[in-house]
Structure formats: C-alpha cells, structure tokens
UniProtKB/TrEMBL annotation:
The keyword ATP-binding is annotated on this UniProt entry: yes
Record note on quaternary structure: Monomer.
CDD domains in the cross-refs: ADK
Biological or metabolic pathway of the protein: Purine metabolism; AMP biosynthesis via salvage pathway; AMP from ADP: step 1/1
Chain residues that bind ATP: 11-16, 128, 174
Catalytic activity of the protein: AMP + ATP = 2 ADP
Species whose genome carries this gene: Tenuifilum thalassicum
Keywords: ATP-binding, Cytoplasm, Kinase, Nucleotide biosynthesis, Nucleotide-binding, Transferase
Protein name: Adenylate kinase
Originating gene: adk
Length: 191
C-alpha cells in the first residue's frame, strides 16, 4: 500500500495537492479537517463539539480525530493507499496511526512535508478566508494562533517521522503545478 502523510502548516497547500495526488496515484483521501467541517454542516454531536475548537483556531481533542480516521480505515478496504491530509497533528495521533496501520500491515511509506514561508502562509490563508466560508481563515489573530499551535504542537510530528527515516521535505513555494511536480518526483522515486 502507498500510504502518505501530507504534512505542512495551515495554508501550505495540503488540500490542493492532495486532490492532485489522489487523482494521479488513485489513492483514498482522508482529511480530518474536511470530515470535521462535514460534521459541523450536519450539526451532529461531533460537529457541534468540534466547532467550539475550530472557531477558536484550536486543535480538537486527539480522540475525536483518531476515531474518525479509525472509522474511515475500516470503510475503505480495497484501496491502493491513503493520503492523510491534516492528520496526524500531534505525536499522540502519529503513534496511534502507526498502531492502526500496523494492524493492517500497511505502514506509512513517507511523510511529504510542504515547506512555505510564514508571510506567504498568512497571505494565502487571508485570501482563502475571503473566497470561502471558512470562519477560521477570516481573522488574522486566529490564523496566527493556528500557526503558533502548528509550531508548538504539530512540528514535533515531523521529528517523529524523521526518526523513522520517512520524512521528505518538499519546497511548497511556487505554482500549484510546480509544487505537484516536486511531489511526484519524490513519490516516483520511492515506488
Ligand atoms: P484543516 O482543514 O486541516 O486546516 O483543519 C481545520 C481545523 O480542524 C483545524 O484548525 C483544527 O481545529 C481541526 N483539525 C483538523 N484536523 C485535526 C487534527 N488532526 N487534530 C486536531 N484538530 C484537527
């Protein structure tokens, strides 16, 4: 199985690049942010709970996203692999993901980490906030708070995969197609 963690700060382009990766390599996209927003739209109990955190720019509790991913892994048996987008965001999540994949005998093959300059991230997120109804992208102080949480809580996940020899940095500056080209080069190299 080709299981990929697509990693990077908010605004790095994970969602955009995930779409292109799943199309080219026929993989299953698992994006916890998308799942949580769907739950919010449905106003399910999980959605209502998640909204409290998301609106403030905080991470939702580990257990909540781990359960969502566990369910999705069960729902998709015959896929050639998964692209994990926005998950794991903590080392607790990363360890749990390894356990779940171990049970399926299908470990993470690589972490692709999109690297984008801080000012560019702020500009992209503010722009996305203008064009979508994502409330967490409309307020610059919430955006900066999310980037702080990324630096403090999520960056250690990079070291977790580095220690396993799975970290692959990708320059995330430039056009969508330029970045996708760099991603494909890394993936093709590993296949
Ligand atoms: P995203 O669309 O990936 O930027 O996620 C939007 C928001 O959903 C984040 O700011 C978090 O509040 C929440 N979220 C998404 N994925 C996770 C995760 N793996 N762990 C904790 N919170 C998450």
């Amino acid at each position: 199985m080709l299981n990929i963690v697509l990693f990077g700060p908010p605004g790095a382009g994970k969602g955009t690049q995930s779409q292109k990766i799943i199309e080219k390599y026929k993989l299953q996209h698992l994006a916890t942010g998308d799942m949580l927003r769907a739950a919010i739209r449905e106003q399910s109990p999980i959605g209502k709970e998640a909204q409290k955190y998301i609106d403030k720019g905080q991470l939702v509790p580990d257990e909540m996203v781990i359960n969502l991913i566990a369910k999705e892994l069960e729902n998709h048996h015959d896929v050639p692999g998964f692209v994990f987008d926005g998950f794991p965001r903590t080392t607790v999540q990363a360890k749990k993901l390894d356990e779940m994949l171990e049970a399926k005998n299908a470990p993470i093959k690589m972490m692709l980490a999109l690297e984008v300059e801080y000012d560019e991230l702020i500009a992209r997120l503010l722009n996305r906030g203008k064009m979508s109804d994502r409330t967490d992208d409309q307020d610059e102080s919430i955006i900066r708070g999310r980037l702080d949480i990324y630096n403090k809580t999520t960056l250690p996940v990079m070291d977790y995969y580095k220690a396993q020899g799975k970290y692959r940095g990708v320059n995330g500056m430039g056009t969508i197609d330029e970045i996708f080209g760099r991603i494909c080069e890394v993936i093709d190299n590993e296949m």
